[in-house]
Amino acid sequence: MSVRKYSIGLMQVLMGLAAFGASQSASAQDQGAFYKDKAVKVLVGHSPGGSFDFYARLASEMLKKHLPGVASVTVENKPGGGGLVATAFFYANGARDGTQLAVFPEGISAMEVFEPQSARWKTLEMSYIGSFAPVNNVFIMLKDKALSDLRVMKTQEVIFGCVGVGSQGYSYPAMLRGLGGYKIKLVCGYPGSAELQLALDKREVEVTSNAWNALRVTHMSRIQSGEVVPVMQAGLKRNKEVPNAPLIQELVDDEGGKRVIEYGSLVAGIGRSLLAPPGVSPERIAYLRQVFDKMVSDPEMIELAAKRGLELDPTPGAEVQKTADRIINAPKDLIAKAAAAMK
User: Fold this and answer.
1) 125 within a domain of the structure (yes/no)
2) DSSP secondary structure of 97-138
3) Which domain holds residue 332?
4) At what angle are helices 168-180 and 255-264 packed, to 10 degrees?
5) Whether residues 49 and 142 fall in one domain
6) Is 90:336 a contact under the CB 8 Å cutoff?
7) Whole-prediction pTM value?
8) Structure confidence by residue, pLDDT tens digits, 309-321
9) Same domain, 211 and 289
10) CA distances from 109 to 48, 116, 133, 201, 221 (A)
């Protein structure tokens, strides 16, 4: 090939890339212009004061900055059924133009699989915009009870407290018991995390758990003092703030058992996420995902999250969507094994 032909070819490639970049920029500008003078709402399926609400309010403040010309971004609380009432409402009635977003429980896709009669939505018809942070369930013990080697539970019964059958405080220990041969006794029926903590302090139970993004707010001083010890966690990877607490699948030797627990832990990767309803155009979803990525890397948001005790370890929306797909479209035999192990 002559130098002249090579130069012409290179020029054509560069011009094509420039044109593509310009079209992408123009598309983003068009999508951004849509939000001028619009009112945006972020729906939460829980009452004010919890981590769902905290992340939604943080997002609303920062979306005002990152959606050009937006008139307002407000949070709407619609509690009921642990977030499930709002999820069903959002799926059926959420604005299809991208002016209504939501922060819902990470387990809505898993509910489609394991409790389809209760799931009045199709998660994959909705679009994840991005995750603020994963939600690893972290299990804690009092200092004088904390086990340095959790495999002691294979020969020694340990009492775990939980809210109810079907909660993460139940399903993860149940999987460890069923797939790892651990002697775990589950005592359920506590109304909530406050009652579970009281039961731990009164030594009615030896282990309790909660989402790490809640524990880091409610228990950080006790953890830092050593009064309470994180002993294990459920998730896809160890949370960087509790690096010494092993993942549940690390406590199981059988590779098949590990695979089942990892599948059951996929919801942790969805975490506290921002979601759009069905019917929003792919172009607007792509734009909102770009906005989310810029927003969570904004030093102002990072500072606000730190001041409020909120963990910020973001995941792009497309990756979160793939995680939901892995949950819903898993092989039937894997789903059956996970369902059996959670009983």
Assistant:
1) yes
2) TSSEEEE--TTHHHHHHH-TTT--S-GGGSEEEEEEE---EE
3) 35-134+271-341
4) 170
5) no
6) no
7) 0.84
8) 899 999 999 999 9
9) no
10) 24, 10, 17, 34, 34
Distance (Å, whole) CA 229 – CA 56: 29
Task: Supply φ then ψ for residue 203, to 5 degrees.
Answer: 65, 30
Single residue among 223, 244, 266 that ends a domain in this structure: 266
Predicted pLDDT at 209: 94
Closest CA to 236 of 328, 288, 172: 172
Give the SS3 label for residue 15. helix
- The answer to whether the beta carbons of residues 239 and 233 sit under 8 Å apart is yes
Q: What is the pLDDT of residue 23?
A: 45
Residue at which a domain ends, from 238, 266, 294? 266
Rounded Cα distance, 202 and 194, in Å: 12
Asked if residues 277 and 94 have their Cβ atoms less than 8 Å apart, the reply is yes
Per this entry, what is the length of the chain? 343
Residues linked to residue 102 through DSSP beta bridges, in sequence order: 43, 275
CATH number, domain of 225, equals 3.40.190.10
How many domains is the chain built from?
2
pLDDT at residue 6 in the model: 45
Lowest mean pLDDT among 21-35, 61-75, 233-247: 21-35
**Cβ(31)–Cβ(66) under 8 Å?**
no
Q: What is the CATH number of the domain that holds 89?
A: 3.40.190.150
Predicted pLDDT of residue 20 = 43
The Cα–Cα gap between 215 and 230 comes to 10
